[in-house]
Request: fold
Amino acid sequence: MFHMTYKNNKYMKLAVVGATGMVGNVMLEVLRERNFPVTQLLLVASERSVGKKKIFKGKEYTVIGLQDAVDQKPDIAVFSAGGDTSLEWAPKFAAVGTTVIDNSSAWRMDQNKKLIVPEVNANELTKEDKIIANPNCSTIQMVVALAPLHKRYKIKRLVISTYQSITGTGVKAVQQLENEYADIKGEMAYPYPIHRNALPHCDVFEDNGYTKEEMKLVRETQKIFNDNTIAITATAVRIPVVGGHSESINVEFENDFDISKIRKMLHEADGVTLKDNPDTNTYPMPIYAHGHDDVFVGRLRRDESQPKTLNIWVVSDNLRKGAATNTIQIAEYLMANSLI
Reply:
């Protein structure tokens, strides 16, 4: 797993914006697990959550508001508070010298902002990058798996089908599923039941008939790989699981490959766990990914319908590597390389 060794242990004031939300809670868990060297922690949320108490490493913290946090000029602010909040407040933090790492979609396709997955393109970061975008969860796990293969064989086209956890929608969706399990009528996060169902509808539909989630896979992947020539098409499906997102990816390369070499590359790739042995029914599943940071890869096989094409199955915990962990890893990289 991508993990940094710090070159210095400078005084570090860190703000977690959206600290009371689902991803914010996971960020705090990841900070604790990875022993991130924070010397002053600011827990930040919207006005309705200001004053709430939270425990971190046995110490009680009081949640503060956004302006209060800006006034305290943290070194780093990790955001998971929604796009509108990020658009309004990230520049205010940046203006006082804070480096913002944003988990929303607000800045991802801004041509002046870096879109970073540490295993893939952290080396693009500089001290001048004061607002850094964290990619979408489904994009992150895919590019971690594909980056070493793209470097070796050059990806020509991707055909992606996703099977996404309800946790990607948030607490409201988890509550809907739990209500449906218990046959309780309640608030609906989706236009249809999710229990015993699959919804080919992640995020809102765009004018081209694709959903925003599907187009994120297209646009973000091209930006991260800095290659708009890669042809990409996607179908994103919501399923009633909580452990993570699964993706079936058909990868057409410019150059032919040896499947055993691909297996070796993935086995050695940073942040990847290879689970690929049909003889023992070994393959990635959300129950393995849940609570872990690696991207799990398996079901490797040639596409027998056309040359130079691979089928691959990729699973990862969307709240961890797909959101919180990737954000914290970016912060670790900035510290380790004295970029703040």
In short: The mean pLDDT is 96.
